[in-house]
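Minutes, project check-in
Item: structure for the 397-residue chain
Input as provided by the requester:
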Amino acid sequence: MAKYPRVREQHIAVFGESGSGKTVLVSSFFGPAQEGSHANELWDLIADDAGQGTRLYRNYLGMRDRATAPLPTRFASTTYHFSVKLRGGDNDAAKKRPFDVLRLAWHDYPGEWFEADPDSQEERDRRTDTFRSLLRSDIALFLVDGQKLVDHRGEEERYLKSLMGNFRQSILRLKDDLLAEQGRLVEFPRIWIVALSKADLLPDWDVNTFRDLVILNAGDDLNRLRATIEDLIETPEALSIGEDFMLLSSAKFELRSEDQAPVEIDTTQRVGLDLVLPVASLLPMERRVQWSERMNIPRKVLDSLADGAELLAVGLTGGKYATVEKFLSKVSRTNQASRVAYKALPVLADAVGMAGTKLKEMNEQARAQHDYLRATLTQFKRDLEQGNDDKVIRTAK
């Protein structure tokens, strides 16, 4: 047991202006898993910090039972740590799996820092340090506020250009400090999903409607943002911005027309939040394989991109981790080019290629065998497939 890593940690960074719904999103991500009626036969979702968990669940209960949205958190940078604790710790499958816990670090970047310059060197340093803290993330969610789109109906271009321009400027303000020590960054979020928050306010939209609106009105601004981030990172071609889109809604809010205060919040009608764990855990692995097939990524970049993808691939396919460990050790000694080395690792290609009927059969088999890790990861992959079919998420191919 001891030779197997027991915890696999993934990171996700969430960027959005003040009022874009970040606190509501994280509360609604965590809250439903704590309800007494909630039943997940594969895993439990735990907040590693009990105080954070209590606050998030209280936020959720306020929405569910009192139609009260949580108060906004101003200038607060928070990282939430959640653990997906797998069931079946005593069976044979559990003894062979590469890890028991999938931990998610959810980094919430203050929206107010998009909109105003730092007023002191201390404030500037705090912003830089906060940004550095989320560089381990493979995935970044860049929120577009559905309420702002409703408010700017017919003038969406003005809002979208302002949103992306403000964020680009905030990156430029941090650039010199971020690059001062070691030059271009090796570790940096490489997959930026443009996500529509408060999607319940635009019920007739699917993810393609949202994508088309963004590209039509702010395609050049997305390109400028991509170019700005490319200047920060090593191997800038391994970067996805403006290629992945997603709809997110924490609940269905019924608002009073005169003051926009909620009169009813239906927390059962959520959109996209069930895809956060699948996106954070599996999308980086898939993108790493895709990029490795198309380009020769330096080893130091590849090792930071979807770190631990081999463990996830083993868990997903039911492969033997010892075989993968031996192969990676050999690659490290020979220092082969990434394109050759990782293309020769079948477990990664097999994991990414699983789809459709075969994926369903593997999920059913894992459940029957009480292999809770493989059942969880194959279910995550099925959820991503379903999200694409339902046009809630659109990922680059």
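Outcome recorded: Residues 156-179 form the longest helix (24 residues).
No further action items on this chain.
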